[in-house]
Amino acid sequence: MPKRGTNIYKRKDGRWEARYVKEIMPNGKKKYGSVYAKSYSEVKDKQQYYLFQIKNSNTKKCNISVSELSKMWLKSIENTVKVLTLQKYESIVNNHIEPYFGLFLAKQISVQTINDFSDKKLKDLSASTVNEILVVLGEILNYAEIEYGIAKPHFKMIKENRQEMKVLSISEQKRLENYLMNDIDIYKFGTLLALYTGMRIGELCALNWNDIRDGVITVSKTMYRVTTKDGSKVAIDVPKTNSSLRKIPIPQFLNPVIATKTSTGFVLRTRNGTPVEPRLLQQKFSKYLADCNISGATFHTLRHTFATRCVEAGFDVKSLSEILGHSSVKITLDKYVHSSFEQKQKNMDLLKPASSF
Q1: Each residue of 78-106: pLDDT tens digit?
Q2: What distance in Å separates the CA atoms of residue 176 and residue 290, rounded to the nearest whole number?
């Protein structure tokens, strides 16, 4: 017969068995372990020993800090994400999470704690930037729940007010095109290529002449700057997602321009043969905008403008999505399809008074 309340039993083989709770799962389910001995007192001593060890272990786990968890989480993902992504996460941890939450124990983090943090950050940062920080914090807390059974608070992301991305008007695009075609050099050529292919700036800077064949651009690489112990350096790697690996047909009117530039090596390169990096191309583009009296645009505006012109020209969204390298049509529709005022005017002009029917 068992000794009541102790989870100790005498087995049919004559031995004594004592059960103890090894772990309580996040769903509340208990996992048990067992120890065995020839006598009741011996098995009870074993049971108490294991219970003591588990209690100490759980106490240690519950007293783990967010700072410790952050380091362990970053270590756990360093071989599963790209270098640039890891550096971004490290920057978020070091500049935002560590200074605020570093001394907090993981078990002390609550929805209210996170809301207070968000309110403070929103005084200096945009909602989208704060949400990026919250995503990383959420991953750290997920790690704490999986590895240590510390329940993660169910907090919500900040609602973002969607801002319409700048798209060049028809008149602005004409001014820019005329400017680019006048005394064209590699920087102007790269800008023109972005305007009529929708390529990202990193993809453009990593482009090689071998990637342009028979009127088709093969996108298989991207360029970015990474931080090292000695400062920073330019790196070229495959894009983040498989959907970014794609082929882009070149508009026919650009082929004569490309023919005059055909060479070997990087499409955009300096006089000494090194590739033009994104920040230099951005600097050049800023000058072009100023010369053309165009405000509120960035290099990424060219990608949005390309997508908008494609929709206005009657592209099917599936084809456009693949040309842009998106993983789904929804991304294309939500983020990159903008109707210009001119297009809205054309659509409105389609309306006729009822008397004309």
Answers
A1: 888 888 888 889 999 999 999 998 888 88
A2: 10
What's the alpha-carbon Rg for the chain, to the nearest Å?
30
What the block records as the tokens of 68 is 């410790």
**Catalytic (active-site) positions:** 200, 229, 300, 303, 326, 336
User: Distance (Å, rounded) from C-alpha 262 to C-alpha 258?
Assistant: 6
Question: What is the distance of C-alpha 59 from the center of its chain?
Answer: 35
φ, ψ (nearest 5 deg) of residue 6: -110, -10
Cα 188 from Cα 318, distance rounded (Å): 29
Dump pLDDT digits (tens) for 159-182. 877 666 788 999 999 999 999 999
Residue 37 has phi, psi (to 5 degrees) of -160, 170
Q: Are 236 and 265 within 8 A, CB to CB?
A: no
- pLDDT recorded at residue 354: 64
Tell which residue, 193, 188, 323, 185, has the closest CA to residue 255. 193
